[in-house]
Specification:
Elements (H helix, E strand, L loop, with lengths): L1 H19 L2 H17 L7 H24 L13 H4 L4 H9 L8 H21 L11 H7 L6 H34 L4 H40 L20 H8 L10 H10 L10 H24 L3 H16 L12
Helix pairs in contact: 1-3, 2-3, 2-5, 3-5, 5-6, 6-9, 8-9
Length: 344
């Protein structure tokens, strides 16, 4: 509570001080504050820097209101009709746009960009009305966003690239000319013609700067709007009917408890299933591994062969005669002979 009261008192004192200053003093203070903020090494997000940004913005806003009240500019007059001492006030929207971008509030980032864009476009429109330089006014954000949809226009892209190159060249020329006349103006020895050239060069310099800032803002605005759309609350998904539980019972008691009310679910225990299949003789090999059964069959065949060999060794005449007769039979009858079930 105390901090809020102190902030309100500081704001009132700042406004009272601004009201006591002349228009030229308000303008020079705001312009100097912007130059200092551009060259400072302190973090832009620090409390002290942001406080200076807010004071500079309030000072230039007061200066803008006074310019509007005095009606210093008109659309019906030419640039040559504007007094040299009043030319600098055409820079007010551009300076306010640059100071607005110095604000670092993340929660108000979208609002800050939109406000700064309006300042820069207003400045460009003023310069266009006075024919300060030849350039095209940027389209409204919605129009420029819609024009970017669909297939890219290669001719427009080439023209835009050429315009950037020309703008960069003009900016360097203006900065070089400014260095030549800046010392004379700051020393106070410049005549009216030199002073007028000084402010006209600044107007041209801020035209290039404003065009660049608007282009940068138009690239960031869609990203912020999409982020805002993603953060907006979404409707809850439609409710689904609850899934019926699948219950695997372990004993007869669980089968009786969980089986009631779930007639389509399994309610037979493992023991009951085994007993039922055993009564119908459908258990595989009655629990005897298949491998063991095959081994037992192989042992039986080997025992029979050994018995035959023993009978032959003991010269059992009867067995020997049967074996010879069977060999003779196999010589004269092919395998399967007399099997009428295989006949076609």
């Amino acid at each position: 509570m105390a901090d809020c009261e102190a902030s309100a008192e500081s704001l009132q004192a700042s406004r009272a001080e601004q009201d006591s200053l002349k228009l030229s003093e308000l303008f020079e203070r705001g312009w100097s504050a912007l130059d200092e903020l551009d060259s400072t090494q302190d973090p832009l997000s620090s409390h002290g820097i942001q406080d200076r940004v807010q004071r500079a913005i309030r000072g230039l806003e007061t200066a803008s209101r006074r310019v509007a009240q005095l009606e210093l500019f008109s659309r019906n007059e030419e640039l040559e009709e504007v007094c040299t001492s009043e030319l600098k006030y055409l820079l007010l929207p551009a300076l306010l746009g640059a100071l607005t971008l110095k604000q670092t509030s993340r929660e108000r980032r979208l609002e800050i960009l939109q406000t700064a864009r309006n300042y820069f476009v207003d400045y460009l429109q003023r310069c266009k009305n006075y024919n300060v330089s030849q350039f095209n006014i940027p389209k409204c954000f919605g129009e420029s966003e819609a024009s970017g949809l669909g297939q890219p226009n290669l001719v427009a892209m080439a023209a835009q690239r050429q315009a950037k190159i020309e703008r960069y060249r003009q900016k360097k020329e203006v900065e070089a000319q400014l260095e030549a006349v800046k010392k004379a103006v700051e020393s106070g020895k410049a005549d009216e013609e030199t002073s007028r050239q000084f402010y006209l060069l600044h107007l041209r310099r801020w035209i290039s700067q404003s065009l660049e800032e608007v282009e940068s803002i138009d690239q960031e605005l869609p990203i912020l709007k999409n982020m805002g759309a993603l953060k907006s609350p979404r409707p809850p998904p439609p409710s689904r009917p609850p899934m019926r539980p699948f219950i695997l019972t372990k004993d007869a008691v669980q089968a009786q408890v969980f089986g009631a009310g779930y007639p389509s679910l399994p309610t037979m225990t493992v023991d009951e299933w085994y007993s039922q299949h055993q009564s119908h003789h459908v258990l595989p090999d009655q629990g005897i591994p298949r491998k063991v059964a095959m081994e037992e069959d192989r042992d039986t065949v080997e025992v029979q062969e050994e018995q035959k060999e023993k009978q032959i060794e003991t010269d059992d005449q009867e067995s020997l005669q049967k074996a010879r007769s069977w060999d003779d039979y196999k010589d004269t009858h092919r395998r399967g002979y007399g099997n009428r079930h295989n006949m076609g």
